[in-house]
Write a structure and sequence with these properties.
By secondary structure, the protein is of the alpha/beta class. It is 37% helix and 14% strand. It has a seven-stranded mixed beta sheet, sandwiched between helices. The protein has a five-stranded mixed beta sheet with strand order 8-9-12-11-10. The chain is globular and about 75 Å long. The mean pLDDT is 94. The structure holds pyridoxal-5'-phosphate (PLP).
């Protein structure tokens, strides 16, 4: 499937029926699988044969989605997880132990930031944050012999920073460190990070991959190129895993993916459900189409907002004035997705008035599906903070996060326009 283009992979990759089988994957709602002989089962446990034995580790419906996303990302192996957060956690658990550290962009999704800054340190895993605009030298200075991976997002949520892949991949290559990128908001329809030196790609499939706000899920894609063999930074990949029949993961073609599933999925059971895999598989059929429409809509919405007298600033990389415009041109040539943020000329109260005046665009904590939605962090998720505290947290009191959907763009703009009329100009 690797020679086909994205649009084709969206509808054809992942599952090919044999004669008389259903055209789309069935929901395999079974925890367990039947085998007639002991040797067959033993071979499965020894990873000598392919197949399913327990849905806590792998399941045919989940596998169809794993294969599709792996093909879309140009990776060699996929692992469907219960959520985007569990995909990030399993990735960290696969390479880190107490005493190790992770070097991470500070402009990442708030939930991921919590995982890295609060939860992982409780297990002895330190996180060292850098600013996306920091120099390669500054980022490098955070790396030591216990650094296990560097983490960033292709398009940061909600900072809307576009990742400089070249800078980070050069740092990772120089130090032999795994480069992990969360590609949720770009999706492989707009950007394929493995081609830019990334080793592991992560998704919250809950967002554009499903696209309909119907199914929670996450995905880990192994690019299959990272040199674990004899890499002193990764002793756990080069010594026998006594919990898995003495397997040495660095000897396998899919070292990271196998360790992640055989050890971490086995021990956590944080796998995607067959029902959610099915819904996400269906949703992902239209991923390329949706990303194209979402990006075109967002470009027009960003231009409208940027020219509006009641809007102070707009962050969206397709705007020539945006700080990340050149980076986006290089890595997101076909569109920058639907996520943007903008500042209303006024206070948090004016923002609340704007939000309440919207008739089509809805207030939601979710982003990145077919319907346009907004969130005003200062009056919702961060409402307990003072203006000063909001500033420290990098959230201006007048910041509105907007996720543009696939409705007719004129209807979206008309709704934003009538809602802005209710904001008094200061
Ligand atoms: N990564 C990004 C960029 C996100 O925006 C989110 C959620 O919003 C996550 C990861 C976490 O995904 P989930 O909600 O599926 O756990």
């Amino acid at each position: 499937m690797e020679n086909y283009r994205t649009e084709t992979l969206c509808v054809q990759a992942g599952y090919r029926p044999k004669n008389g089988e259903s055209r789309i994957p069935q929901i395999c709602q079974s925890t367990t699988f039947y085998y007639g002989d002991t040797q067959n089962m033993a071979d499965l446990f020894d990873l000598k044969a392919e197949g399913f034995f327990y849905s806590r580790l792998a399941n045919p419906t989940v596998e169809a989605l794993e294969k599709k996303v792996a093909a879309l990302e140009n990776g060699v192996y996929g692992i469907g997880c219960a959520s985007g957060m569990s995909a990030i956690l399993l990735t960290a658990m696969t390479v880190c132990e107490a005493g190790d550290n992770v070097v991470c962009a500070s402009e990442i999704y708030g939930g991921s930031y919590n995982l890295f800054s609060v939860t992982l340190p409780k297990f002895g895993i330190e996180c060292r944050f850098f600013d996306a605009d920091d120099s390669a030298e500054k980022i490098e200075s955070l790396i030591d012999e216990r650094t296990k991976f560097v983490f960033a997002e292709t398009i940061a949520n909600p900072a809307i920073v576009v990742l400089d892949f070249e800078k980070l991949s050069a740092v990772c290559k120089k130090h032999g460190v795994l480069f992990v990128v969360d590609n949720t908001l770009a999706t492989p329809a707009l950007c394929r990070p493995i081609g830019f030196g990334v080793d592991i790609v992560i998704h919250s499939t809950t967002k554009y991959m499903d696209g309909h706000a119907a199914a929670l899920g996450g995905m880990i894609i192994d690019g299959g190129k990272f040199a674990f063999k004899n890499n002193k930074r990764y002793p756990a990949f080069n010594t026998p895993d006594e919990s898995y029949h003495g397997l040495v993961y660095a000897d396998l073609a899919v070292a990271f993916g196998t360790k992640c599933r055989a050890q971490m999925m086995r021990d956590t059971g944080a796998i995607m459900s067959p029902q959610n895999a099915f819904l996400t598989y269906l949703g992902s059929d239209t991923l390329a189409l949706r990303m194209e429409r979402t990006s075109r809509n967002a470009e027009k919405v960003a231009e409208f907002l940027n020219a509006h007298p009641k809007v102070e600033w707009v962050k969206y990389s397709s705007l020539p004035s945006d700080k990340y415009h050149a980076t986006a041109k290089k890595y997101l040539p076909n569109g920058a997705g639907g996520m943007m943020s903008f500042g209303i000329k006024g206070s948090a109260k004016d923002c609340a008035r704007f939000m309440e005046s919207l008739k089509l665009v809805t207030q939601e904590t979710h982003v990145a599906d077919v319907r346009s939605c907004v969130l005003h962090p200062a009056s919702t998720t961060h409402r307990q903070l003072s203006d000063e505290q909001l500033k420290d947290a990098g959230i201006a009191p007048n910041l509105v996060r907007l996720s543009v959907g696939i409705e007719n763009v004129n209807d979206i703009i008309a709704d934003l326009e009538q809602a802005l009329e209710n904001v008094s100009l200061r």
